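INFO  loader      accepted 1 record
INFO  loader      residues=119
INFO  predictor   begin
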Amino acid sequence: MRNALGGLFLLGMAIFYTFHIFETEDWSKSTATVESVRVFYQSEVHAKGEHRVDLRYGYEVDGVHYTGHSTSSGSAWESSARRTAEQFAVGKPISIIYDPQAPEKSEIKQTGWSGSFSL
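INFO  predictor   done
INFO  writer      dumping tokens
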């Protein structure tokens, strides 16, 4: 039973990510600037908790400033989260994509970042 539930969960995630890839394939590429970065511990994820990186970045579309936000995938080790945070120092340019129909929707497309995204 446990393996079946795990399999269903993985299938659901694969479908979700495939949908997301198709949804974002027409999004525009741009460069953003890291505005803030912090490492934090999230204990409610599971019994042991996870260290994550919270990243905020700014970008412009047609002269309008937008702020994006992403939280990294979790790590059991704080040192791993800190290494990720060091790659995204405040003021550093990063690659993003954004929805040209709704420019406030964006996500990071940068080597070294494995984070959440909002739909």
